[in-house]
Write a structure and sequence with these properties.
By secondary structure, the protein is an alpha/beta fold. It has nine helices and twelve strands. It has three domains: about 1-10 and about 190-280, 4-hydroxy-3-methylbut-2-enyl diphosphate reductase, catalytic domain (Cobalt-precorrin-4 Transmethylase, domain 1); about 15-95, Rossmann fold; about 100-185, Cobalt-precorrin-4 Transmethylase, domain 1 (3-Layer(aba) Sandwich), CATH 3.40.1010. It starts with a strand and ends in a 9-residue tail after the last helix.
């Protein structure tokens, strides 16, 4: 079995920067992470072992008891920042700069008097942060949710991990159903997400199946796996080497390997080594 590795995969700079910031924290027990730092189970387990307290993303309405609160790479709304600071909390901010850019884009569209359409996953922590400062908006998960709005001005922006295909389909549907409206689009899909997706696309024509490594709650990882299946390529989404099932690979001669933007290098390397152990053969090693 030959293993081909995506040219671009694994942790993006935003996640790496967030981890660098948290590594410098001297007293983890004095810090509550406001949600999941990144959507990767291995990273979260390491943080828990260091002594960090964590608030589940569904329970963030309660103010943490620790004096320090860490804002995750997914960011929060300005309103949420003010709420935490008003409660006397000091904030450690690890928000990805590209997520901040998405927030700014949404507020810019709102300042122009537009009803804001956010292309993304409803309820996702990043999306919740963006819409937390908006007064007139809708979250659009797919073109089937697009309708005719009464607003004369519409603005479209995206969750940073949205796929190019989804964005294109939603934009087209908005234009078709709202010919009366002045529509402005701001592309806020982050470059690392685009590079991961493009690298995957280049690999799909060369493999019979794909292994996608990343957290179960990682939106961009799930999108990578979904893109494989759309191309007719079976995809196995694993969190680590322990999830690999040798029987799943029966009959495949060439398998691809990629990983989401919050997947640690060590986890990718572990999966790669496990693939070699399944069926030793000539492979292309990850950089």
């Amino acid at each position: 079995m030959k293993v081909l590795v995506a040219e671009v995969m694994g942790m993006c700079f935003g996640v790496r920067d967030a981890l660098k910031i948290i590594e410098k924290v001297d007293d983890p027990e004095a810090v509550t992470i406001h949600g999941e730092l990144v959507h990767n189970e291995a990273v979260l387990h390491q943080l828990e072992e260091r002594g960090f307290r964590m608030t589940a993303e569904a329970d963030r309405r309660e103010v943490p008891r620790t004096p320090l609160v860490l804002i995750t790479a997914h960011g929060v709304s300005n309103a949420e920042r003010q709420r935490l600071e008003s409660a006397g909390k000091r904030l450690i901010d690890t928000t990805c700069p590209l997520v901040e850019r998405a927030h700014e884009a949404a507020l810019k569209l709102q300042a122009e008097g537009r009803h804001v359409l956010v292309i993304g996953k409803r309820g996702h922590v990043e999306v919740e942060g963006v819409v937390g400062d908006l007064h007139s908006y809708d979250v659009i998960q797919g073109p089937e949710e697009v309708r005719t709005w009464p607003h004369a001005r519409l603005g479209i922006m995206c969750q940073t991990t949205a796929t190019a295909r989804l964005v294109q389909e939603v934009r087209q549907a908005v234009a078709e159903k709202n010919p009366h409206a002045d529509v402005r689009f701001l592309d806020t899909v982050c470059l690392p997400t685009k590079e991961h997706q493009r690298s995957l696309e280049r690999l799909l024509g060369q493999v019979e199946a794909m292994v996608v490594v990343g957290g179960r709650n990682s939106n961009n990882t799930r999108e990578l796996a979904a893109r494989c299946r759309e191309h007719g390529i079976p995809a196995l989404h694993v969190q680590g080497a322990a999830d690999l099932d040798p029987e799943w690979f029966a009959g495949y001669e060439t398998v691809g390997l990629t990983a989401g933007t919050s997947t640690p290098d060590a986890v990718i390397a572990e999966v790669w080594r496990a693939l070699l152990a399944l069926k030793p053969t000539a492979v292309e090693a990850p950089a």
